[in-house]
Design goal:
Blueprint: E1 10-25, E2 28-40, E3 43-47, H1 54-61, E4 69-74, E5 77-78, H2 84-91, E6 94-97, H3 109-120, H4 126-139, H5 155-167, E7 173-177, H6 185-202, E8 205-209, H7 213-219, E9 222-227, E10 230-235, H8 237-241, H9 246-255
Parallel strand pairs: 3-8, 3-9, 6-7, 7-8
Antiparallel strand pairs: 1-2, 1-4, 4-5, 9-10
Helix pairs in contact: 3-4, 3-5, 4-5, 5-6
Length: about 260
């Protein structure tokens, strides 16, 4: 299941650039000097224990939280300097795949996928919407589930539909929040393969927040290990975990399942 290196990473073009990022909540310092670059066409897995600030970092990248200090650039825009209209425009270029899949229970699969198009691209015809829905359903291999309700889908299918709904606006960056959480090993493998397919087929750059080392190893070009509010180590899976660092070894031994 090793990750295929068929895509092109442009290390001359960054899509996310973070410098000197700090964030605290009261006396709790969550991020303590983050420096990070995501390159065009690259998948990076951000690893760390619960409560280490992985989700806080993602929220700062999309402008849901303000940093206390430092700079965050996404697709060339300095995020915390944007006005609400500019921020909305940026978010249309960034897809966020939620851990819960975040589907509307009262809408069938087709309606769930059409919703972001109807909200954001109001000039599309009914036929154009239908074409786009079929395109992303095809990409996640669930074209036959179009009329089903979310409650009729398995956990893995809901996850796939959630990713499809994110893809429908053709984002340049994908943010995955714990994509394999709560899934059995076979379904996890399918989601891992889908993340790689999305990278190749849609030419996305992605951040994958996870504590699942199998997912990280098989989806990422690089791994960033978050410890004590900083990236303790950034590199390939082997570079990060071929180490005598007791914190990294402990994380590996606790989380990795062959």
């Amino acid at each position: 299941m090793d990750k295929l290196q068929q895509h092109t990473i442009d290390r001359d073009e960054s899509v996310i650039k973070i410098r000197g990022l700090h964030k605290s909540f009261g006396d709790l310092q969550v991020l303590n000097g983050i420096d990070f670059t995501l390159y065009k066409g690259e998948n990076v897995a951000i690893l760390g224990k619960s409560g280490t600030g992985k989700s806080v970092l993602i929220k700062i990248i999309v402008g849901l939280l303000q940093p206390d200090q430092g700079e965050v650039f996404a697709l060339g825009k300095q995020v915390h300097k944007l006005n609400p209209k500019e921020l909305d425009a940026l978010r249309l270029r960034i897809g966020f795949s939620f851990q819960s899949s975040a589907l509307y229970d009262g809408l069938n699969v087709y309606q769930n996928l059409a919703f972001p198009l109807l909200m954001n691209l109001k000039n599309l015809t009914k036929k154009e919407v239908s074409i786009e829905v079929e395109r992303v359903l095809d990409a996640v291999s669930l074209k036959d589930k179009m009329k089903q309700m979310p409650s009729e889908l398995s956990g893995g299918q809901r996850k796939r539909i959630g990713i499809a709904r994110t893809l429908i606006l053709k984002p340049e960056i994908m943010l995955y929040d714990e994509p394999t959480a709560g899934l059995d090993p076979i379904t996890s493998t399918e989601i891992i393969e889908l993340i790689n397919e999305v990278q190749h087929q849609f030419n996305t750059s992605s951040i994958i927040i996870t504590h699942d080392l199998t997912c990280a190893k098989n989806t990422s070009d690089r791994i960033a290990m978050l410890l004590d509010g900083k990236f303790a180590k950034v590199g390939t899976f082997e570079e990060v975990f071929n180490t005598e660092d007791s914190h990294l070894k402990e994380f590996y031994n606790y989380n990795f399942i062959q």
